[in-house]
Amino acid sequence: MLAFTDPREAYRRSEIEARIQGIGDPGDLVRICIEQVVGGLGLALITNKRPDPAARSKALSRALSALIALEMGVDQSAPLAPALMQLYGAAKRTILDSVISFDSEMLGRVRADFIEIGRTLKNA
Predict the structure, then answer these.
(1) Would you tell me how many other CB atoms lie within 10 Å of the CB of residue 32?
(2) Are 71 and 86 contacting, i.e. CB atoms less than 8 angstroms apart?
């Protein structure tokens, strides 16, 4: 299986796995997932400018997977749970809509929102 994988992708995955294994705080996992959303969307925006729909699809899948992980980790009894679920759901819909009809502007906005969230968490 690794023989068919892009070496950069294999390295990225092993780096993420190593970071996840070293996590001592659930907040760290949230930060990693947010980084993956930001990175996946950024890569999708870049690859959209090239004739490489497979790379764009992989990047969108990476962002979508990270969003699903974020959704799964929401404590439904927390006061912010409804707002987080709404945010993650809207971001997922934007990504899924862009699979069919790529919308650079909307994906850029979602990416900017998650960059801001990531910054806030980093400073907390």
Answers:
(1) 15
(2) no
Residues in the chain: 124
Q: DSSP assignment, residue 120?
A: H
pLDDT, tens digit (0-9, with 9 covering 90-100), for 35-73: 999 999 999 999 999 988 999 999 999 999 999 999 999
CB atoms within 10 A of CB 53: 11
Helix, strand and coil content of the chain, in percent to the nearest 5, comes to 80, 0, 20
At 4-28, the pLDDT tens digits run 456 665 545 555 554 555 566 778 8
pLDDT of residue 2 exceeding 80: no
Which tens digit of pLDDT belongs to each residue from 64-113?
A: 999 999 999 999 999 999 999 999 999 999 999 999 999 999 999 999 99
Domains of the chain with bracketed CATH: 2-123 (1.20.120.340)
CA distance 111 to 43: 11
- d(CA 99, CA 93) in angstroms, rounded, equals 10
